[in-house]
Amino acid sequence: MNLTDRVVVITGGAGGIGAALGRRFAAEGAAAVVLADLAADAARGAAEAIGPVATGVGLDVTDEAAVRALVDETERRHGRIDLFCANAGVATGGGLDAPDADWDRAWRVNVLGLLHSVRAVLPGMLRRGQGHLLLTCSAAGLLTAVGDAPYTATKHAAVGLAEWVAITHRDDGIRVSALCPQGVDTPMLADGLAERHLGARVIAASGAILTPDQVADAVVAGLAEERFLILPHPEVADYARRRAEDPDGWQAGLRKLVRRLRAADR
What we know:
The chain is of the alpha/beta class. It has one domain (7-238): 3-Layer(aba) Sandwich (Rossmann fold), CATH 3.40.50.720. It is built from ten helices and seven strands. The protein has helices at 16-27, 40-50, 64-78, 100-128, 149-169, 187-194, 198-206, 212-224, 235-245, 247-264, and strands spanning 7-11, 32-37, 54-58, 83-86, 131-136, 174-179, 229-230. A seven-stranded parallel beta sheet has the order 3-2-1-4-5-6-7, sandwiched between helices. Helix 1 packs across helix 8. The chain is globular.
């Protein structure tokens, strides 16, 4: 996808990866960039920083009617949506004993939030015979977020949903990309490190931490090539390959890393 003159909607757009995508798409010549976020004021501030091409709005992606209303309003104002980035997500830092409320929120945001977005925007794209969906799924959707069971389970479901839509609607002119970064310098990672969540510490210990702008660079390149998997950390492809070829060895390596981190706490 060439981003010039495109109309783009980004959920989770108030900061981190979402705001970086908005800045980069505007720089690439997008006609309109809509930043939607539960933090409405922050979304409006991020849009103001981009300039007149951007608009910030409040949105709860777990509210399907609200997502449909956003899509309807954007299509009314701009005539179409060329690229929809379903980027909102939450982590928990919990295991099997995480409260049911945390499991429910992870499911509603990380999976149903994507589903609501796809359901709302896909009909218009199908009518036009073209459109691109970018679903932020995380490397956790291909591997495992050690220390965060709800995040792991829901991000695996997100990758599965993205792949299903890609297979089902590619011949209808719809392109789908699953964005799967690993460590990114965002409030989600910072909060996890501050709270000493094991998953955040594993990420910090195991690879490079990219800036949101570096992730945006990888997204622009991936969209241009219409890639399904967009991997800002190229090593994730090697990790996924090793995990598929030798799951026992892969798990043993992660257990060793976890033991080392836990030993450092003693």
